[in-house]
Amino acid sequence: MLTGNQTAVVEFILQGFSEDPQVRALLSVLFVLLYLTAIVGNGLIITLITLSPGLHTPMYFFLVNLALLDIMCTTTVLPKLLESLLVQVDTISYQGCLAQIFFLIWSLGAELLLLTAMAFDRYVAICQPLRYGTIMSWPLCVLLAVAVWTITVLNTSVHTGLITQLTFCGPNHIQHFMCEAPSLLLLSCSPTIINNVMIIVADVYFGVVNFFLTMASYGYIVASILRIRSTSGKRRAFSTCSSHLLVVTLYYSTVIYTYLLPGSGASTANGKVVTVLYTAVSPALNPLIYTLRNKDVKAALQKVAPVSW
Length: 309
Known about the structure:
This protein has about 300 residues and is an all-alpha fold. Helices cover about 75% and strands about 5% of the residues. The protein has helices spanning about 20-50, 60-85, 95-125, 130-135, 140-165, 180-185, 195-225, 230-260, 270-290, 295-305, and strands at about 10-15, 90-95, 175. The chain starts with 10 loop residues before the first strand and ends in a 5-residue tail after the last helix. It is found in: Cell membrane. Belongs to the G-protein coupled receptor 1 family. GO terms for molecular function: G protein-coupled receptor activity; olfactory receptor activity.
């Protein structure tokens, strides 16, 4: 018992996907493949960019940060989910639940801020190409990255700190396959008004504000591309931001559905599927999205470890 927090509940029961052994086996294989793809893919991105001087540019610097966040996000969720599916251990300790919430909020918030920084980088590259080297200097890039990690760790520290002040005296059944703040607050025996207010503030800042900043960047980008007369010029300009735009669309659509749309959590099954999209599918797809059509990455990969593309 955690007497310092007056917490009677020392562990929580997570709700799995299915009790059918065959379904659990299929899901286990799927999540193992997704996890391995995410770890190997993002690890390869980090290694390749680190070892390739030609990729030491602001865009790939931010991509390394994105890969680190994807590894953090998927590692926070999938190992525990696989344990539930393979060993049928559906419980998580109070401390483990807090740790999962901490790293999940940290990675999700940081990714939203980072996508905004990456959108700004693409805006400068396309709309201010002659001033790109001056504006996107290394001091600014490092400052943006440090701000992303620092702001989000402070945000998640506030959320988890507030949760530690709550009392949990039962029930202890979380209606999800992982610990997340909204689901956990429903089980609290203490008033959660401050927690809910802080969640709303965070959702507005990290979700709404950054979404509009990202969309504003792409509004200027689209307008600038449309002013290019040659078709080949438009194609080249669009190719520099198409991968990032695809990642933004995938990530924001799932996060908005989960956290911002009223009533989106009404269906537990739908909520689980959407959560899998941004905690497992997105981290696995991001390395593929950024490398399949990227000639610079392919060329760097051939130099580091020659393969036939």
